[in-house]
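Researcher: Please translate sequence to structure tokens.
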Amino acid sequence: MRRSMKLAAVVLSGSLGMASLAACGAKSTDNASSGSSDGSLKVGMAYDIGGRGDQSFNDSAARGLDKAKSELGVSVTEADAKTGEAEADKETRLKNLIDGGYKTIIAVGFVYQQAVDKVAKDNPDVKFAIIDSNDKDQPSNVTSLVFAEQEGSYLAGVAAANKTKSKHVGFIGGVQSELIKKFEAGYKAGVKSVDPNIQVETTYLTTPPDFSGFNSPDKGKEAAQGQLDKGADVIYSAAGSSGNGAIEAVANKQGALAIGVDSDQANQPALAKYKNSILTSMVKNVDNAVFSYIESVKKGAPFTGVKLFDLKANGVSLATTGGKIDDIQDKLKAATTAITSGATTVPTAPAQ
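Model: Translation complete:
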């Protein structure tokens, strides 16, 4: 069970570390004795809601952690978030990882920014990385791992515009935030670059401080059904595990196609029965960013400041599983070249 506690294989640095990690729902997947005795790097990962197993954003981060464990020999512990939790819960989760001896900590998601800023300031000897957020006032021991989501979403829009038969497509955002608006902006710009007359439906599931829109497949399914009923036949969801519900709704509509996000969702076992309805996925290579950051720490030259993973750096891409976009590769390559050469600048906020 994903949320079960698996600390038996780990010897943490003292009983306080054991108790505090247990309290925050941490799970160790170490091969050795947590790294304290053999000198291996100890890495703690604090997931966003949905955690490992969401088939999307968190799973991509988990793949990077798994690769670091396998290839770099690091010792790891993972801690889950809970829907509706207080800000103090995030701070406690990070502090508990530190108490357990983890001095390199990766926070998955912009919702951790306030907690990371506070805990990092109080623990200057701990290295933090935060995914998808960049606070200009964050402490110097915090590194931001950010992505050009708008660029990958632009390509998703180009694909949608070339595949829609009804000239009507949709976008579903999990939480109406500045980050998810980048997905929306890029997608709409990509659609309009092909045909400005294509109609684009937009639905957000929740607004801050309600972040359940990233972990509510039922809401995703309902939103997608609403867009299908209005005539949309290609729907792109940037909504974490809520997007799984949207994909299910699309799969139940003959001729409709879904566009996944963050991970190659047509290649996810839990979504296998829907893969024939998934046109492509806008893959955000969080795994590459996580692995690269851990590798930099292990080499003694950790990334600092803001590290951008854009289209040129293979930070974002479109999945080709299923072959449904093979016939439009020339158009996608042209759009990619226009972005990477600077000829096309993709907006980061939706046009008003």
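Researcher: Any highlights?
Model: The CA atoms of residues 54 and 241 lie 5 Å apart.
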